[in-house]
Design a protein that fits this description.
Elements lengths: L1 E5 L2 E4 L4 E8 L7 E8 L6 E7 L5 E3 L7 E6 L4 E6 L8 E9 L12 E2 L3 E6 L1
Parallel strand pairs: 2-11
Antiparallel strand pairs: 1-3, 3-8, 4-5, 4-9, 5-6, 7-8, 9-10, 9-11
Length: 124
Amino acid sequence: VQLQASGGGLVQVGGSMRLSCVASGRRIFSDFIMGWFRQAPGKEREFVALRSWNGRRTAYTDSVRGRFTIAIDDAKNTVSLQMNSLQSEDTAVYYCAARDGSRLYPSSNEYPYWGQGTQVTVSS
């Protein structure tokens, strides 16, 4: 599976931004997880949001719950991340990731498929 991310850039505190990631390379079946991780300078990569392909399971890290929304468009093989009320602490390189299976593992080690990172910078 190849993942191609888009979006990112510079936004002011309180602003919004949308990231998208397209999966290609093979047919996606229902037991598939897609999501977003991020890595700030000097910090470990952390999970941001995960969603099962069938939409039955979703998880957010505490710091973004209520501000970020993850969605999957299975017709387009796309996962998106709508980010609202952005804060300076959200500044990081964001990565889309995917794995086969049905469990939403928060550890990046469980995800074999990765897109290229996209920089999100929130300025005050």
